[in-house]
Request: fold
Amino acid sequence: MDEATIWLQIESLYRTHFPQFVRVARAIAGDRDSALEAVQEGFADGLRHADQWSGSGSLEGWVWRCVVNRARKARPRPAFELTVDERRTDGRQYDSELGIRLAALPERQRLVVFLRYFADLEYREIATALRFETGTVSATLHAAQATLRAAYEEAPV
Amino acid sequence: MSRVDRVPGLSAALDELVPVVDGSRADWNDVVARADTRRKLWFGRGRSRSRRLRLAIVVALLFLLLAGAATATYLLLRGNGKIVFQGSFGTLLVANPNGPGLRAIARCAAGRPSCAIFEPAWSRDGGRLAFVRGRCCDFPLGRRRDSDMSLYVAAADGRAARRLASCGNCGVQYQGQHLGWLPNGRWIAFTRRGPTWQESLWVVAAAGGRLHRLTDCRALCADVQPTWSPNGRLLAFQRETPAGSTIYIVRPDGSGLTRIASGADPEWSPDGSRIAFDDKGRIEIAKADGSPVRLVFAGTPATGPGAPSWSPDGRKLVFFTTPGRPGHFRLEVWTMNADGSGKERLYRSGCCTGYGAPPIWSPDGRLIAFSDSAAGGTFVINADGSGLRRLSPITSSDLSWQQRPSR
Reply:
């Protein structure tokens, strides 16, 4: 795949998945402005280093890696490192026990959840984005789901 | 969102945690501009070339870094060789300026109590050592004219000493260095006593051979302290007569004898444009063309200053002074810029100094060596005045600092 084609595909990805990228970036960086900045810079990284994409893996996963890396750098502090009684930055408490547990997941699990549910990525793409093994993605996601399911089961109905 | 359904309520929780974003703020042109701007800042243009160019820059930087480190190491290792100075009567010692290694490098033969060694002088490349050795003088008791010493050249480790010429007193009754290596290391100028006790300058090949007279000093005259210009085309020296000391220059073939100024202890600047010397309590700088001398330090005649020595980069001079009164002199070591500014005292002895060796620069210009009887020994001090350390407890009247041989 030549570089022009890669550029076109990256542009297409940007135009079709922009909200998902911003949403994941916000989940990592913590606020909307940082997320927007991370997405723009992440895609710019993708263009600048398009010649470094090996072509053997998922281009989408590789672009996600650029954006995730930018979002991680933009994060002023560990995002969503919450205790169960911590309040949201906008002043509202989480409405549900599940939200609290989600926010309190280890970063590794949280990132996998975000990429799985916000970006609708396959395991292989998540593995590329986070530099995990595909099996690790599966195990991490399973652990996160187990934690969240337990919270749901414990929550009052 | 079937995946979300595997955890009931997760979709709502995710929406609560990170609200859904609309795409209205997408701006692809901004992304392209950021990519292009960063590329231009770093490498100008051309995506396909950027990686190779960056690699080339990294390689170039690594090369410069390695070259710098290698140069620094080379200068550190190459610059400063050993310091040679007099040991007990009849011995020459060498020492490393920054550590141990003190040892004898030349000595008189056993059973020759009247033998002495003077005037050690490393060749410019540090590969050979010249000195004078022989029956001497009962110095300083005055029976000087009984001396019968000779000029020798040895390898840098002191071995294979070869006698090149007899030179009588060889000028040792006068302070200073009386052996002058030509910069190319092939010839040595030296002071040699003549049949009527006058002392003139001669040259001899370092490999040995015929002697060639350079100057013709008549009765009650001595030509001493020969020092070659860096290009070897002129020799400056000091002529001692009852009228006082005078600086002259002469060509290697003995022609072109020119008076420069009254004074003593001449030394060429590293670029060969000037000669620094002392004269009646002053340090002055003259040009070889005989233009007026320039005063750079004014002291008092009885207390120095004396024996100016150029730093290897030609920017500074080091010299000594001996403030005090007769019998109660102290030795001080000073540096100053070549224009006389920035005077700085590096060392001051206690009372009382009797003799020693004037300060000399290390080949790399970072250290200064001198000898002082008040403190009892031969010393090295950093050029900024810090780090005074004693090389030897023996006070010497002659010092020479070796340029570390390249092989």
Q: What stands out?
A: Helices of chain B lie at 10-17, 28-43, 47-79.
